[in-house]
Amino acid sequence: MKKSVLITLVAIILVMFVVLFAVIASKDGKVTGSKVSGTELTPEQRGDVVKEHQLELSKNEKSFNGIIGSVTTPKNIKIKILEVDGVIDDFEVLKNMNPDEFKGTVEVPTMKKIFKVGVDENTKLIGFENLDDIKSGDQVRINAGQDPRNVEEFTAIEIELNYRNRN
């Protein structure tokens, strides 16, 4: 009988510690004095949150969409040089937008930029069989491996075919 009382007592103590730990952990997760729910934010505060989120996404973006213009193949080298009419986020315009412009659906401002893109055997091809399958007019998504706003010529890390006109 003494063994069962001891086991019961140890079990009760363990349960009390678990409950105490759960209560303490739930109180640590709460922020006192501020509300984080989106319904309690003013429209301007929500606009600020959305703007900061879009700026962060735009700042870290290394890929862009574009349309391949010319495709050049240098002799005796397994590489393609593409001229790509790319569309990238216009970070400066985005930075200068007012928070009230981020109500409802927001279209991120973009700008066009012409890139010279090298594609070689190290470039990951998605939607293409091989380098010879890349055609002028293809709509693609290109991973530059760096901020495309800061470069005009680079070797692509990855190129993905988004759309090809079959006519």
- Compute the number of helices: 3
Kindly name the structural category. alpha/beta
Order of secondary-structure elements: HHEEHEEEEE
- The number of strands is 7
**Euclidean distance between termini CA atoms:** 88 Å
Q: What layout of secondary structure does this protein have?
A:
Elements: H1 2-28, H2 43-60, E1 63-72, E2 79-89, H3 91-96, E3 110-120, E4 124-126, E5 139-143, E6 153-155, E7 158-163
Parallel strand pairs: 3-6, 4-7
Antiparallel strand pairs: 1-2, 1-5, 2-3, 5-7
Q: Can you tag this structure with a few keywords?
A:
single chain; 167 residues; alpha/beta; 7-stranded mixed sheet; 3 helices; 7 strands; elongated
Task: Provide structural commentary.
- With 167 residues, this protein is of the alpha/beta class.
- It contains 3 helices and 7 strands.
- Strand 1 and strand 2 form a beta hairpin.
- The chain is elongated and about 90 Å long.
- About 3% of the residues have low confidence.
In short:
This protein has helices spanning 2-28, 43-60, 91-96; strands spanning 63-72, 79-89, 110-120, 124-126, 139-143, 153-155, 158-163. The protein is α/β, with parallel strands linked by helices and 167 residues long. The radius of gyration is 27 Å and the shape is elongated.
